[in-house]
Specification:
By secondary structure, the chain is α+β, with helices and mostly antiparallel strands. It has helices at about 1-30, 30-40, 65, 70-95, 120-150, 160-180, 185-190, 220-230, 240-250, 255-270, 275-280, 305-320, 320-335, 340-350, 360-365, 370-375, 380-390, 395-410, 425-480, and strands at about 50-60, 95-100, 105-110, 195-210, 215-220, 240, 280-290, 295-300. Strands 1, 2, 3, 4, 5, 6, 7 and 8 form an 8-stranded mixed beta sheet that branches. Helix 12 (about 305-320) runs parallel beside helix 14 (about 340-350) and helix 15 crosses helix 16 (about 370-375).
Length: about 475
């Protein structure tokens, strides 16, 4: 009898342990916000519904470079700390972390699992989720900057101990890595920078996937658009759809943010204290390769009130880091070529560090005919032409010219036909299509050649010219240092 009781007790204990483990697994893997929403609703939503959602994507740029210097376990610790910091921002603003895939993450606001919009009408809901998503994107960039500095000042604002511990563990790894390098080398090479993109619109939200592997997710064009915004966003910046911008603007959030960033920049002594509204929210057209270069209107937004100074400081450190350092500086110029604050700072740095940018060579690469005409007018005086171009154009103005050239080669026509016409037979159909395609080819032949020449000759030569000037400076500095 006693044996039976013991067996029963063991079985009961085993069941209890299994239930405890299952609960632990659920708490470990299932998002708390989702679980609480399901419990409050009294059951799992089995039918997907359309809802207005504000969606963001984040991608960590150049993390692959940093990961080379860390063991797999150390990489896990650093990423977990970074994502813990990001998730704290989301929780603070009431956002939902939808998924993490490698070095990118997706998050959103609104819908049936967002408790803050349940009792709001649609107008108030739109204003709320637009504001929270926008300031989340801004704060994610700022937390990324603090993470680079292993800054602990914001940790006292985090109430969740496990989040603080995860961030501190990541700081420990970064501290150990920093101790193996000179401070300047570490700060030049190991900066984690992120791109963020956002959109807002109606999506289908609910459970997707087969039984046993279902996921709470959102699908629809706003999700695709948000991802496109992230992939084309400047590193360290934010890109949003024009529709999202209009909602922010209508609700006074853009003007509020403009005042805020100028105030912050002024306190930090940054040139951004003079940033105009149109420079802070810079309208830009993105061309979608997967849509035959269709135009997509967007806004690129600056989020770091001292970005020009930050880029300049890192570039100064990179000047002495060989070809990889030169590549990084050139990439900064590519990323920020539409930002005159950053480019002007870099041009000043080049002047201070004696990096000789041949502006006449840049001009000649882009406009060889005009260069020859100028040379002819000045009786072949190449030195005089160099001086005139150098005095007449800033680096930013030359980059603007490059941008205009790029815009001029993007136009392309596709064959068109009247889709209302009935199919009149194979021969007639193919005859009309052959004529249509040939017309399109004749129209596009010249522009296609121009585009090919721009992207394969002009564009790379322009930036190789700048890279060569940096390498020249590095070589000259090394020779001077070696001289007795």
């Amino acid at each position: 009898m006693m044996v039976t009781l013991m067996n029963g007790s063991n079985e009961q204990g085993s069941i209890t342990e299994e239930l405890a483990l299952r609960r632990k697994i659920e708490e470990f893997y299932l998002p708390r916000q989702l679980v609480e929403a399901i419990i409050e609703a009294g059951g799992i939503h089995t039918i997907s519904n359309e809802h207005l959602i504000a969606i963001g994507f984040l991608d960590i740029s150049r993390y692959t470079f940093l990961s080379q210097f860390l063991s797999p376990h150390e990489n896990q610790i650093v990423l977990n700390g970074l994502y813990s910091a990001f998730n704290w921002v989301l929780i603070k603003h009431g956002g939902y972390l939808n998924k993490i895939e490698g070095d990118s993450m997706m998050f959103h606001y609104g819908g049936p699992i967002d408790p803050k919009v349940k009792h709001l009408d649609e107008d108030d809901s739109i204003k709320h989720i637009a504001r929270e998503l926008f300031y989340t994107c801004v704060e994610l960039q700022r937390v990324s900057s603090l993470f680079n500095q292993t800054n602990e000042n914001y940790l006292n604002k985090i109430s969740d101990r496990s989040t603080v511990d995860a961030i501190l563990e990541a700081y420990r790894i970064l501290g150990e890595l920093r101790s193996g390098y000179a401070s300047a080398t570490f700060n030049a090479l190991f900066q984690i920078r992120i791109r963020v993109g956002a959109s807002l619109g109606r999506v289908l939200i609910g459970n997707f996937g087969p039984d046993g592997a279902k996921q709470w997710d959102v699908i629809g064009m706003p999700v695709i658009e948000a991802k496109r915004m992230e992939s084309s966003a400047p590193i360290g910046g934010l890109r949003i759809t024009s529709g999202f911008f209009e909602i922010l603007h209508e609700n006074g959030i853009t003007n509020e943010y403009h005042r805020r960033i100028k105030r912050e920049a002024n306190a930090m002594g940054s040139v951004y204290r003079k940033i105009a509204f149109e420079e802070l929210f810079q309208k830009a057209v993105v061309y979608l390769k997967d849509k035959k270069n269709a135009e997509f209107e967007t806004y690129s937004i600056q989020v770091n009130p001292s970005l020009p100074e930050s880029i300049c400081e890192q570039s100064k450190l990179l000047l002495s880091r060989g070809e990889s350092g030169a590549d990084d500086i050139v990439n900064f110029i590519k990323y920020y070529r539409g930002n005159h604050f950053v480019i002007d700072k870099l041009e000043n740095l080049f002047g201070e560090e004696d990096v000789v940018i041949r502006k006449d060579a840049l001009y000649r690469i882009m406009l060889p005919g005009k260069y020859k005409s100028m040379l002819f007018d000045m009786d072949g005086d190449a030195v005089g032409v160099r001086r005139r171009i150098g005095e007449s154009y800033s680096l930013f103005e030359l980059l603007e010219m490059l941008g205009k050239l790029q815009d001029s080669v993007k136009g392309r026509s596709d064959p068109e036909r009247n889709k209302e016409e009935d199919f009149g037979g194979y021969d007639l159909w193919m005859s009309e299509m052959r004529a249509s395609i040939q017309r399109a080819y004749d129209i596009n032949k010249k522009s296609t050649h121009q585009a090919y020449y721009f992207y394969n000759v002009i564009f790379p030569l322009f930036f190789e010219n700048i890279k060569a000037a940096i390498l020249e400076n590095q070589n000259r500095t090394a020779v001077l240092e070696e001289a007795p």
